[in-house]
Amino acid sequence: MTPGSSAGLRLPPADVVALTALAWVAAAALHEGVGHGLACTALGGHPSNWSTFHFGCDPQPMSLWGRRIVAGAGTAVNVILAALGWLVWRGSSVLRGRLAGWIVFALNGLTTFGYLVFSAVLGIGDWNGRGVMTGVADPVLARVAPAVIGVAGYYAVVRLAAGMLSPMLNGADVAAQARRYSVIAWMTTGVISLAAALAAGSDWRSTIGASIGVALGGNAGLLSMGRFIKPTAAASTTTLPPNWLLRVAAILGTVAFVAILGPGIAL
To answer: Is residue 187 included in any domain, yes or no?
Structure first.
């Protein structure tokens, strides 16, 4: 099936939850472990711990540019995952596969540009003055430029993701369908992030920050997806049966993410 195919999609909500859970767990784990972790090791840093939304790296042995690269490496992984999601959406001949590609693209694209805005406005995160912008004294370059790029990129991701979802839907209620899938995905990332924060024994402030800031805040663009959906003249609607293997994989992956990376791993 190609992006111009004319079959609409109906998927059980539990399968949307499962696809989102797997995509979100993978994105968070790879952002920290592969992005920050590999960059830290490759550039001479000393890894100390790896958890759901943090990777500890002693930057003392590294150069200024080395510290910047380590800080930005997590976002680079999200960019790669977003690109892979788009390729899967475009090339998959399976409707469930195309939806998986859409979810991977949307979550990683929103994380990429949302992080720029998050760091610029609040001064925390990978792109702040202690991360990618380390040593940048000019406030325009340090905070205004990332914020502008972040807002523009975030809007572009929302519009592109809506365009990707439109051909997979059918009927007069396509906007409602889009909102349904988007809200399910949004809530799933929040619940998983909250569970991971609680597993870390965080106080209520950091718990709320992890669940709302990282997930519900960063992925809030999903909630506006419905307004950009364009109805398509799909010839038929395919209602997919439940995929129990997918659901079991999502449960196991989420439990491992929360139980192991929630408390963190000492390195």
So the answer is: yes
CA angle 205, 209, 212 (to 5 degrees): 130
Block means of pLDDT (10 residues each) for the chain, 267 residues, are: 54 94 97 96 94 88 93 97 97 91 98 91 86 89 92 97 88 81 95 88 65 84 89 66 95 96 91
Whether residue 253 contacts residue 20, with contact meaning beta carbons closer than 8 Å, is answered with no
Give me the pLDDT at residue 54, please: 87
Domain that holds residue 153: 11-235
What percentage of the chain's residues is helix, strand, coil (to nearest 5)? 70, 10, 25
Q: How many domains does the chain have?
A: 1
Residue 262 in any domain: the answer is no
Instruction: Establish if 42 belongs to a structural domain.
Output: yes
> Is 248 within a domain?
no
